[in-house]
Design goal:
homodimer; about 350 residues; alpha+beta; 4-stranded mixed beta sheet; 13 strands; about 35% helix
Chain lengths: ~350, ~350
């Protein structure tokens, strides 16, 4: 990309990606190309904001993720933050710092992934910044969304007596990463090696945030606290417990184990619970809900094709997270999470 | 910072920076600490969004800017984008990628600058992301603001017959950078060397975005196009000309030259116009306005202590930018701007 100036590069990456009709339907009045973007807001809703940075060799390696996966996931991680608030994702800005030696084709693939994910969730990309760097490829996506006034699902809203639930199957992304690192081959070749483990790789490279689940949870009026589990189930449970000033007692035997994770655990001789509690980058949700409404809530999510499982209860008699182990013994759950300051290799 | 985990680092940098009362007055309902922030919106206004990335050794060097300057300027560049739309800046997210060897004290100084600028312009810092990197310190600030519905000042709104104006004194930031690079000494020592040139260094290291000017221009109802001149006066004039499909004829003799710039030009034997047309990172505004209302507009800005000067006219007879040179000859003005892909050393 060294030959291109900033404006030409931005055009090469963003032109003709989202139609004027799509942007208009998203409420965008001014998109890429002025000092700032301008968009409508929805009366009765509040603004929700998040941002997330991915750095090559810290958050991803080329050996584990295709460039389009990297773009997809950078967008997905922010959409997951929106889902965790019960919000609708709406607008994104993409800040990219690029080593001069990077081929334009790699960047185009990265933007393919960005726009694929944005399109899937009807997010308008309305701006950004593209700079050079002498360091690693760095991608920051910032997102805004909207949620009904005063209704955002906060991590501080767990109350004793509620059930703790999780959507999907925790731990798959971390196991997928380990699988990819272990294979040490380009990610587009992994299917040759382990097709039956594909869901783990998919979970790591193409995670699907649970926006619909977040919206259904909010609409139900029965949801207490909600977090995504991007830093791991244990860490996020701790966040809820501390923010709410109560205890979460999880039953490790009730946490759903995906078939692919069970297969990989058997193959490697590892305990799937390690990934399920301490693996990160799953864009599933952990939350609490009133016991009374949980059955109908669970049914509504099930009808939408979203697996949800009761995995514990909220207690008023301690603050923190405890878990029943495989033998039914009540043990404290370590607070450790997925720490991006621990580099991946 | 290598010993700190991400959460401890974020706390060390952001705790107790902005009071709950300040955040509340800014309409923040949920700040740092949940999956995303939540803030009120103002009825009748639209959302304005921008982001800007600064990379060490591309956008700044430690020899030219103190860490607090870097933080201040990263915030200021986004506030300037808001000003250029006529918008009120409101909320910011800060994404920081940090080399492991960086001392915590440097980061704290950087955040001092971030919060100093944010406080000055009443911007609430509501979130962000802090990651490690093997590469250069990278700082992305994303900002949202608000502007009255349908009233944003776009670059496409120049019309033949309007005057072209500029606020402040273009070229000072670029001259300040050159001065600092030339001196090749730590920036906190520059006053010993050239105290009379202080305004150039101030313009480079602590630029003050023209939010009040933008608001007055919008309120006047007389303003056409508006841009900030962060990519240089010539480049931004070209942006307005092309977006509006008309010509800007600038009179180089009418562009205000600051005394410090004149002094530095004399000292170095250079033509101040080079900095004024092609220097970047001035957070002043270039715009167009109806001739009829310009005198009162100029008076309103003057009363607010904002220098504004008529520097040309909008023409319907060509598309692009031309300038009258020192001898009054009409010459085309090169489209080149301040290109951040050209590294600073």
């Amino acid at each position: 990309v060294a030959q291109l100036d900033e404006f030409s590069l931005i055009r090469a990456l963003t032109d003709n990606r989202q139609s004027a009709a799509f942007l208009g339907a998203c409420g965008v009045r001014v998109g890429v190309g002025d000092d700032a973007a301008v968009a409508e807001t929805t009366p009765g809703r509040e603004l929700v904001l998040s941002c997330d940075t991915m750095v090559e060799d810290v958050h991803f390696k080329r050996v584990t993720m295709r460039d389009s996966d990297i773009g997809f996931k950078a967008m997905a991680s922010n959409i997951s933050d929106m889902a965790a608030m019960g919000a609708v994702p709406r607008l994104a800005l993409v800040a990219l710092s690029v080593p001069a030696a990077m081929p334009l084709e790699r960047l185009k693939a990265l933007y393919d992934g960005i726009y694929e994910c944005a399109g899937r969730y009807r997010v308008a990309v309305v701006g950004g910044d593209t700079t050079s760097t002498r360091g690693a490829l760095t991608l920051t996506v910032t997102m805004t969304g909207e949620v009904e006034k005063g209704r955002a699902l906060l991590r501080s809203a767990a109350r004793p007596g509620q059930v703790v639930f999780v959507t999907g199957y925790p731990g798959m992304s971390a196991a997928g990463l380990e699988l990819l690192l272990g294979l040490d081959c380009p990610s587009d070749r992994w299917p040759e090696f382990a097709p039956e483990l594909a869901p783990l790789v998919e979970a790591h490279c193409r995670p699907l945030p649970q926006v619909e689940a977040g919206r259904l949870l909010l609409a139900s009026g029965n949801c207490g606290a909600l977090n995504d589990i991007s830093d791991g189930l244990a860490s996020e449970a701790w966040e809820i417990a501390e923010a709410s000033g109560c205890g979460l007692l999880l039953d490790s035997r009730r946490i759903p184990v995906h078939g692919s994770l069970r297969a990989y655990a058997a193959l490697t001789g590892k305990d799937p619970l390690d990934w399920m509690f301490y693996g990160g980058e799953d864009y599933q949700l952990i939350g609490t809900a009133d016991r009374k409404g949980f059955a109908s809530l669970s049914e509504a999510l099930g009808k939408a094709g979203i697996p949800v499982r009761e995995i514990g209860t909220v207690s008023g008699s301690f603050v923190g997270v405890r878990a029943l182990d495989g033998g039914g013994r009540d043990v404290p759950l370590a607070k450790k999470g997925y720490n991006h300051f621990r580099e991946v290799d």
